[in-house]
Amino acid sequence: MQADLARGILFAAMLLMAPVSVPSLARAEDADLARCLNARTGSEQKQCTQALFQSAVEEMKQVHARVMEEAAGLDARTSGLRDGGGAAAIAASQHAWEIYRDAECRDVVGRGDGSGRMVWVFGCLAEKTRQRIRELKTPFYQR
């Protein structure tokens, strides 16, 4: 009897905590992402978020290439610093960021099964990639 009561209390507590522990992309500030999440079917949501992610990846590649070119130019002008170069630091940062993004979106947000799982994964990937684009476009000291 007490075990049933304890299970019931535990279940109720889990239900109360669920909205806190599950990320809500529906509250995303990104209007494009919100549009995707408001699509009529799960299939449409997945296609939309996947396309949003692919578009963000293409934009990030362009922005990253420009940032790397600028850093390489600065490195060439300041080659006496012997710190390994800004371009190398940015490349290492980008690599680490991609590992973080993929782990966060695919392994944390995408944890579990279900038909909507990939909507969440692609939505997360798109959102984080767009955030990274803003970071790359604006040097830290200007943020």
Write the layout of secondary structure elements.
Elements: H1 2-21, H2 31-37, H3 42-77, H4 86-109, H5 117-137
Please give a structural write-up.
With 143 residues, this protein is mostly helical. The protein has a single domain (26-142), classed as Substrate Binding Domain Of Dnak, Chain:A, Domain 2 (Up-down Bundle). 76% of the residues lie in helices and 0% in strands. It contains five helices and no strands. The chain has helices spanning 2-21, 31-37, 42-77, 86-109, 117-137. It is elongated. The termini are far apart. The model is unreliable at 3-28 (pLDDT under 50).
Total strands: the figure is: 0
Rg value: 21 Å
What is the CATH architecture assignment?
Up-down Bundle
Q: Please tell me what the overall shape is.
A: elongated
CATH topology: Substrate Binding Domain Of Dnak, Chain:A, Domain 2
| Portion in beta strands | under 5%
Topology as H/E string? HHHHH
The overall number of domains is 1
Distance, first to last CA:
58 Å
Q: What is the helical fraction, as a range of percent?
A: over 70%
Low-pLDDT ranges: 3-28
Mean pLDDT: 81
